[in-house]
Amino acid sequence: MPKYNIYKIIRSKLDELIFKFESVGLKKVSSRKIDNYCFDFYFSKEPPEISIWWVKVYNDFIPKEETPKNLAYFSSLLIYNNDVCYAVSMGKSHFYLKNYCDLDFGLNLAERIIDETKLTIKNAKYFSINKSKTITTYRGPSRIDYDSGESFHYIKAKTIDEKKWGRTVSFGHSVCFNLNIKPDQLAQLISLIEETLKKPKILTLPRIEMIKDKESIKALDRKLALAIEKKRTKYSNR
Description:
By secondary structure, the chain is of the alpha+beta class.
């Protein structure tokens, strides 16, 4: 069954992402219009050669005229219109996509489509003294629970609608679907995702969220500056 690892790209950063693609050897090899989206396929025509660790180890057994190296092809399919942009990652292209994506996308969607009683894997960070990070794998589907100070980073769980989303989906910075659909049907999936993200959450996951409100940022900056000044004064009076 096809696997689609999908990132939501910040629309205003699309041109920057394309420039990055070109700088690392990804070239646009095809483009088509499907529904209301442009589909641009970027492919590494000449991927760099990669050294193979065992070639050096078994050098005495390999003919001297042979210098075997691996070629790791990678690619990405950009799906976009004037309002939104998504990217499907293949190979190492995820290394570049993560710098231009909406980091909250995966968990935002998870809060709307997962069955909270059927969690299979979770990766969480902690803001406590005793531990900083855990990866938990469950023997069978389990209910989502969490401790004080725990922040979800990645989860894998069954969905509330297998026909729409597939049986089990992974959520992090991207969302990894296992769906028996062809690439040109991704236009329908993207539209479904956009529609779903506008709906109310069916559960709330504890997680780190970036503060985007400018007034809140200013208030927190002032609070931080006052705390630093207070501590500085305290130590200078000793």
